[in-house]
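Morning!

This is the sequence you dropped in the shared folder:
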Amino acid sequence: MNMVLKQPLARCPGDSYQTIIGRDGGHVHDVLALQSNPPQSDADIPFARYTSQAFFDREMESMWAKVWQYACREEHVAEIGDYYVYDIGHHSILVVRTANDEIKAYHNSCLHRGTKLKPSCSEGSSQNIQCPYHGWTWNLDGTVKDIPQRWDFSHLADENFKLPEVRVGRWNGFVFINMDAEAPELQEYLGVLPDHFRSWDMSRWYIHLHIQKELPANWKLAQEAFMEAYHTPVAHPQMTHVVGDVNMQHDIFDDHISRDLCPMASPSPTSTLNLSEQELLDRMLVSDRSVVADRRIVPEGETARRVMANQICETVMEQAGLDISSLSVSETIDSIKYNVFPNLFVFPSPGMPLIYQFRPHGADKDRCLFDQMVLRPVPANGVRPAPAEMVRIGEDDSYASVEGMDDFLGLVLDQDTNIMRWQREGMYASKKGAETLSQYQESRIRHLHDTLDKYLSK
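The structure's back. Tokens below.
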């Protein structure tokens, strides 16, 4: 993949994202005005990167064990003794609140005979860390507390049996872990992200809904469906009438950070309808319709985008006492999706506050887990609700079957699941054996593979 494009990147004819947000009136946030998408290779990407067990094993050893990964939100470990287990492949990490302002993480394995200290994908609270097999026990800070029948372990020195730690970093309410002692600090890894999020304080939000679904695809294949909208007119034609797709903006900032910007209540250039502003408002897609009125009238001379933004501002103020009126229309309602390599998607706009995460399902190269979390602002009384308990659904279960899930969004996600299955099967059936990506709309997919190669080559 070393053939570099010399010509300018292609762009969809018609209104660009910059044109659309310029029509909103008011200020345009300088962060959203940025455009960054450097030239890339135009070589095909082999399907073996998705289907090969050897390639998957290299990812586990050379990439997953060396990158910063989102493990949980701070509200998952709010009190001293609270713990949360994060699993990735065969790795299992135990995240623990050890003090009021301290969170530690340990490899989730007993130093006696290797039993997991806490079950996979579990959370809870305890004032020590005890192995469920023989009862070896550690304090929350990882020091030895008790070894049953200690007389039989005279050869053991407590200072040599502290639980091995995993690095922890925190940002904007997110808790990250990194198993590599030599990796850069989290703030360096996040690059432009802290600066770009200076208007979005997500520490004031909590997880209202958490769905985890098993998907029939390699982790890269699955998340790549959410890194481009080139497929929308074919796979999700109902969406084209109310949101942008092929005219989305795609930006690449550094190895670990990229994003796409998708205008809401703004029809795709491929739409066959000519909806009025009122019809756009009535059909507008948001991740949580409970934060907007069932129906709002678009006054003469107004737009659906501005009416929706105003409604969201009013509702957030009423419910959470949070003043977001300084945000622009685009900052408030659009699908603004930042990717943190390798597998985290963060949507910070109050009209669509989401977290997406994709990771291998155990050691199965052909299956992955998709976590979707819907956020809400902490209520005005300041009492932070406990994060929603995760609802696990199987490959054949509809997202819409989960209470609180928007039916329309559930349908869209179900359509994506079907496509992933067909794509995975098609990769194995392929004579060509590789994919050919577009220059712009799929540029962030190539960027994912380029960054992955940097880790695999170390």
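Headline: The longest helix spans residues 407-429.

More detail when I'm at my desk.
O.
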